[in-house]
Amino acid sequence: MLSVVRAVEAGATTMKGVIDATGLSRLKIERALTALEKQKLLVRDGQGFRATGLPKTARPARQCGSCNACCDILEVAAVDKPVNQLCKHWQTGTGCTIYDRRPQMCRSFVCAWLQGHLDDEWFPAKAGLIVHFSQDAVNVTADDHCPDRWREEPYFSKLAEWSLNGIRRIGNRGYATLIVSGPDRFMLLGRTIVPEPTLFGTAFLPLTQDTFRYWRAKSPEHLQRLHERIAEIERIRQEFGSCAIPDNEDDDPQAPYRPALLRLSNHA
User: Fold this and answer.
1) By C-alpha distance, which of 109, 111, 116, 115 is closest to 129?
2) Strands 192-195 and 202-206: what pairing?
3) N vs C: which end of the chain shows fewer Cβ within 10 Å?
């Protein structure tokens, strides 16, 4: 809901404006708008959406100062700005030359450092990393001048911590931790790095407190079968005290799962 709040506060007055600013689905935005109306924080009328008293937490706790990382690192399709290329509308000594008519994405974007969630080591111009929160993810974009900075400390431990917190949350409150570094995409499962996660999802099983075994799904049906097998592994663990974990990431399990798992675990 906070991303919708920021979009409206920044000037988005229509459903299309909020969609463009947040990237959320129409359904999620409608739910957020309804909740804001109930809290009397927003009014909808013939002229669109108007903020009537948005939470103070929606306002940045800091100022950008010398940092223009978001104008350099992030993609802004509305002004044909590709990722990791300084915006053509940025001018040294002047800043944004179209500030009063900048796209809605630029108006509503607030990074995690600017919100006050991170200490000064995460100052984007220094770290080469931009962190921002969406409804279901912690999103990290790396400057192409330091594409592996996110793997270094103190950054990696913090990202791993966020990932574990997201995994431990229940149901729809959970979130993913995603990293974009040039053409590469990664997802963190604690301290386990999943390269190029698929759109269909990733099934995973804890190995230690902060590491996981994972399988990248090739289809929704494949993901369902992986989850069914993981559930059977957990049942065998409870019954026998241990269960071997298949180590072939490319496998496509088929029911019944129990006999094969018992043989693999020498419990048959």
Assistant:
1) 111
2) unpaired
3) C
Q: What is the pLDDT of residues 56-101, one digit of tens each?
A: 444 445 788 888 999 999 989 889 998 889 999 998 888 899 988 8
Single-letter amino acid, residue 79: V
Burial, 119: exposed, middle or buried (Cβ in 10 Å; 0-12, 13-18, 19+)?
Answer: exposed
pLDDT digits (tens, 9 = 90+) for 140-168: 999 999 999 999 999 999 999 999 988 88
Do β-strands 48-51 and 192-195 pair in parallel, antiparallel, or remain unpaired? Answer: unpaired
- Before 220, cis peptide (omega within 30)? no
Cβ atoms within 10 Å, residue 206:
14
- Which DSSP helix (H) or strand (E) runs through 141? strand 137-142
Q: In this structure, what token pair is assigned to residue 136?
A: 């279901």
From residue 203, alpha-carbon distances to 178, 231, 253 in Å are: 15, 11, 12
Residue linked to tokens 């600017």: 114
What three-state secondary structure class fits 200?
A: coil
